User: Which sequence fits this backbone?
């Protein structure tokens, strides 16, 4: 029997190892001299001590994105009708429900816990396996939650900024959270009595998540590339602000669809992600 | 790295930037764009040093009227150049361009020469305006309404609005309103927790840092951006 190792499970560890190794090898951004307090303050606030390495990883990501991810997303948008894409995004969001539920509970967010539970039950049944978001219409709006946020609520520092190819913007806390999300996800472990089938489904889900998420970010990222004078710096700032906002769980704040990964581009650019929900 | 540095304050580049005319900008998309444009709007007003709290009712009324003016300008049938002038007038009036611009340049502001500062502020304002005017097409039919929450903070007031465009999911945009010289002024635009003025500060600072701390490198990049936005508007 083949080893049961869905790529989604190995990926974070590999990427993390790569990032850490790289950071160790190529080094750190030049720390400003001690007699320049403003520059030091900015260096600290930017939280990107291994910037040269991260920028190299960003270039790697851009190359992969240009050749594979973006074209696939463009094709997906061109070929698949909007309502179908919305259904795919809804179904992927629904599959994330158990992890969101666990994190709602761990953060003591009882009301959100109830919302997530209600959404999962309604959408899985009335919503035909999550394809239709009937719960939204019934006053149960979606929200995202993940272990990275739970760690943050528990007081874990984010650590230095990391840019991981394919995953996008992250940091050690969110990366660890991403691994925990996968480990805690019942759909990672359910085999339905058939390991090959389960493994195939895992791949399909991972692939669909990447394509659907990238498609939802097409316009946003195109816009960043076109208008930012330094897209790397823009994404870094947007990701960190966005995560802080998600962690805060401010009452009444609108949130984007939870189909994303809890780290990386899907989480960092919330201003764009809700677009998936549109026709 | 740009080769020509110090395109030093050529006082003549404004006309170049102003050249463009007419046409409907191509429709582009979603939120970020809107966000960027909206943010640009809001941004302009930030005056961290001098802004003070604004009464919530007053701030809300201010955003309401500013938003209506902008929406009217964007949706009018006038030629693009004319609509751009209207938008420019609204923004100059509603946004604390100098305060926001200084906030964004941050520590580099004091290191810039007075000429560089002047050129920077002019380019910054031009970019705010053109970020909107380059997107008239995609914003056609835009509507906005006041959202649920308005909240007062120590320094300013956040006014929540909902932006709707045809064929797009509505999204929420927060406007940070401060008081500058006795008048309410927009000092930042925030979409889902992402502040335009913070994001832009990070972007501009990265450009300067990576070009040996030369503000002139940023100015070159900004000129370039104005030209690109102008070209899009012409399409």
Assistant:
């Amino acid at each position: 029997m083949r080893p049961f190792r869905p790529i989604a499970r190995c990926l974070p560890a590999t990427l993390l190892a790569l990032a850490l190794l790289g950071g160790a090898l190529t080094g750190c951004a030049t720390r400003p001299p001690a007699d320049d307090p403003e520059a030091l303050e900015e260096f600290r606030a930017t939280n990107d001590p291994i910037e040269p390495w991260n920028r190299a990883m960003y270039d790697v990501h851009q190359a992969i994105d240009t050749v594979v991810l973006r074209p696939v997303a463009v094709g997906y948008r061109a070929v698949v009708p909007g309502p179908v894409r919305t259904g795919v995004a809804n179904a992927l969001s629904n599959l994330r429900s158990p992890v969101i539920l666990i994190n709602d509970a761990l953060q003591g967010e009882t009301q959100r816990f109830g919302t997530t539970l209600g959404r999962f039950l309604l959408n899985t049944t009335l919503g035909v396996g999550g394809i239709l978001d009937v719960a939204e219409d019934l006053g149960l709006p979606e929200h995202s939650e993940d272990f990275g946020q739970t760690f943050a609520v528990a007081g874990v520092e984010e650590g230095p900024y990391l840019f991981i190819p394919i995953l996008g913007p992250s940091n050690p806390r969110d990366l660890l959270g991403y691994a925990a999300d996968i480990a805690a996800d019942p759909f990672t472990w359910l085999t339905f009595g058939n390991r090959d089938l389960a493994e195939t489904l895992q791949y399909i889900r991972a692939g669909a998540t990447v394509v659907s998420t990238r498609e939802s970010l097409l316009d946003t990222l195109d816009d960043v590339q076109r208008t930012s004078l330094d897209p790397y710096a823009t994404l870094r700032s947007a990701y960190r602000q966005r995560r802080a906002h998600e962690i805060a769980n401010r009452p009444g704040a609108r949130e984007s669809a939870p189909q994303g990964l809890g780290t990386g581009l899907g989480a960092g650019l919330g201003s764009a992600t809700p677009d998936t929900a549109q026709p | 790295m740009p080769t020509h540095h110090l395109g030093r304050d050529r006082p003549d580049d404004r006309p170049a930037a102003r050249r463009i005319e007419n046409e409907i900008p191509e429709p582009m998309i979603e939120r970020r764009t809107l966000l960027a444009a909206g943010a640009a709007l809001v941004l302009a007003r930030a005056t961290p040093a001098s802004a003070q709290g604004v009464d919530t009712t007053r701030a809300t009324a201010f955003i309401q009227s500013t938003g209506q003016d902008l929406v009217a300008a964007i949706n009018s049938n006038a030629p693009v150049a004319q609509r751009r002038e209207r938008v420019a007038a609204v923004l100059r009036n509603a946004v604390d361009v100098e305060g926001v611009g200084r906030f964004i340049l941050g520590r580099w502001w004091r290191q810039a020469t007075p000429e560089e500062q002047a050129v920077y502020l002019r380019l910054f304002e031009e970019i705010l305006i053109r970020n909107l005017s380059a997107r008239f097409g995609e914003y056609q039919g835009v509507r906005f309404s006041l959202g649920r929450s308005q909240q007062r903070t120590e320094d300013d007031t956040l006014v929540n609005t909902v932006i709707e465009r045809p064929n797009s999911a509505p999204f929420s945009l927060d406007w940070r309103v401060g008081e500058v010289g006795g008048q309410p002024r927009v000092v930042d635009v925030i979409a889902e927790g992402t502040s335009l003025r913070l994001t832009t500060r990070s972007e501009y600072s990265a450009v300067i840092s990576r070009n040996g701390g030369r503000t002139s490198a940023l100015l070159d990049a900004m000129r370039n951006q104005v030209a690109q936005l102008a070209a899009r508007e012409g399409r």
In short: Chain A has one domain: 30-277. The longest strand of chain A covers residues 162-164. The CA atoms of residues 194 and 200 of chain A lie 10 Å apart.
